Structure formats: C-alpha cells, structure tokens
Structure to design on (136 residues):
C-alpha cells in the first residue's frame, strides 16, 4: 500500500467513524436529550451541528475515495481532509457542547470551524483539478 492509499483509507475510515458518531448523537438527541434540547436549545444548535457533522463526514469519505484515483499524493487533498475534520470538531463539536451541556466557553471557535469547512472544500476542488489521475 502506498502513501496515497494509506491517507485515502484513513479519510474514508475517519468519515465512516464520524457518520457512526453522528447517527449515535442523532439518536441520543431524539431520545435521551429530547426534553433537555426542547427546553435549552430553542435556536436548534443541536440539529445544525448534526446536519453539518453528517454532511462533512460524508465529504471525508468522498475525499478519501477521490484520493485513490490520483497518481501522486496530493497535499491539497490531504489538507482538505484535515480541514474538514477540524471543521467538524470546531463547528459541530462546539454546537453540540452548547446545546447538550450548556457549555459556551469555546463558542467563539465556531466561526473558525465554518472557515475550515470552506477552506477544506476549496482545497478539495484545487486538489481534484490540479492532480493528475491514474492511468490504467
């Protein structure tokens, strides 16, 4: 297995684990946290966090699969994967903390998570365009 395959497989696995976590959090939100969220999350932060978490976890999987088709390791695509993951942590993670635990201390990092999402998708686009694909 070459370095590109290793990184690509890592992003696919990271995306899959994040999707599993998002499903578990969604189920907890509908059952264990339902009353708490109804009383303490009128803005719907939990649902926003869940939506972006799921979307960007899928993005990690797509990114990993796209990396497999490139002939050489792409720094742009690797950066895109890490930026999407950091975005999940900063954006969704902080919104989960705010809605479930009432923890607002790190809420200032939410915009950095959103910026990481934007930069991640831009890096994905650049990496997909700039890197040659494998010739079979």
């Amino acid at each position: 297995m070459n370095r590109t395959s290793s990184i690509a497989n890592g992003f696919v696995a990271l995306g899959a684990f994040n999707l599993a976590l998002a499903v578990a959090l969604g189920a907890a939100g509908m059952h264990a946290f339902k009353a708490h969220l109804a009383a303490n999350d009128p803005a719907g932060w939990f649902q926003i966090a869940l939506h972006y978490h799921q979307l960007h976890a899928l993005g990690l999987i797509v990114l990993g699969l796209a990396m497999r088709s490139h002939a050489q390791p792409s720094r742009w695509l690797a950066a895109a994967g890490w930026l999407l993951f950091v975005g999940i942590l900063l954006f969704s993670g902080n919104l989960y903390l705010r809605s479930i635990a009432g923890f607002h201390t790190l809420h200032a990092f939410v915009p950095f998570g959103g910026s990481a999402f934007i930069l991640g998708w831009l890096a994905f686009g650049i990496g997909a365009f700039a890197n040659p694909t494998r010739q079979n």
